[in-house]
Amino acid sequence: MRQRAAFLYRQLDHLRELRRDARKALLKEARQHRAFKRLGEVPGLGPIRVAQIIAAIGSPHRFRTKRQLWAYCGFAVITRSSADYQVSGDKLEKRHKQTQTRGLNQSFSRRLKVAFKGAALEALKTEAFKKVYERLTTSGVRAEMARLTIARKLAAVTLAIWKSGEAYDERKLSKLAA
Fold first, then answer.
1. pTM value?
2. Residue ranges of domains in the chain
3. DSSP-derived secondary structure letter, 87
4. Of 41, 50, 54, 71, which is least packed with CB atoms within 10 Å of its CB?
5. pLDDT digits over 42-65, tens only?
C-alpha cells in the first residue's frame, strides 16, 4: 500500500509540473494575440480565462450577434415545438398554445461555459456587476439565473470589446451588453 501511494504521489508531482508548464505555454501564446490586453480589462477575466476564451473562439467575427455566442457558450435557451398547426376540417390552423422552453442548449463549448461562469462569480465582487445581480435577485429572479445573466452579460461585453477593439468602460456596460 505504501509503495502504491508513493507511486501515485510521484505521478501527481509530475502532473503538477506539467500543468505549470502548460499554463506558461498557454499564457505565452495568448499574450501574442492583439485582444489579450483589452479582454484582460473586463472584470472577472484573468489572464488564464482570457487565454482560454481566445483559444476557444479564435475570431470574434464568427459570431454576428451575442446570441450566437451565447449558444456556443451554452447560455442560449432552447424552445421546441412539434405541434404548431392542427387540422380542423379541411383547413390547417395554427394552434394558440404557447411554445415551451426546454432549458439551456446541450451542444456547446464546455471550456467557454466554465470560463464565463467562473468569470461571473469573480465579477460579482465588482460594484457594477454586483448592482446588476442585486437588482435581478430583488426582482424575484433565482440566484442561479441571475448568475447566468451575469455570465451572458460578460460574454456579450467580451464579444463587443473584442470586435470593436475599444477599452473596457464600466459606464458603457449596459450599452455594450445590450
1. 0.76
2. 12-75+106-177
3. E
4. 41
5. 999 999 999 999 999 989 999 999
